[in-house]
């Protein structure tokens, strides 16, 4: 039994699913769900002002996608955790959701008891995923020859720590222009367009 109630909000466009989730959560000891939204726009307008610990977020919403909404809300409310609850199991949706700030990724086929367990796990700092999603991530790992130089690896790891190119230049005693050139080369070698894609691909290929 948990000694603190976990406050949830739901963003789900299917009325029956939304109501069922609210009933399951609100009827379970240690959980409450007083806020439910049928689309991303209404969620964006309200959730930041509500006493919410965790948001269950569908991906395929009318208007803005759940990934877009999660990215926006997480950037403005870093204390709130987001769990994607969706039928989408493709690699692109998983990757974009995690990059947007989701702490968990579950399929809607998840049983009510497992869903509650996963919510507790996120509340305690974990990052749960449905078994099918975890399998897809494991299967996506490929060990390839590292195309990056030692200096590029060093800069990539610092990018992964959240440093910008000016901070990196200062820490490793290079000019900002030189660091920007290294970062451009990193993106080119990994065939990516930005920091998030570079970090994801480096992790996926066991480079960092």
TrEMBL record:
Domain of life: Bacteria
PTM sites of type 4-aspartylphosphate: 58
PROSITE patterns in the record: HTH_LUXR_1, HTH_LUXR_2, RESPONSE_REGULATORY
Pfam families associated with the record: GerE, Response_reg
Annotated InterPro entries: CheY-like_superfamily, NreC/VraR/RcsB-like_REC, Sig_transdc_resp-reg_C-effctor, Sig_transdc_resp-reg_receiver, Tscrpt_reg_LuxR_C, WalR-like
All residue ranges annotated as the HTH luxR-type domain in the record: 145-206
Domain Response regulatory: 7-123
Record's keyword terms, sorted: DNA-binding, Phosphoprotein
Protein name: Response regulator transcription factor
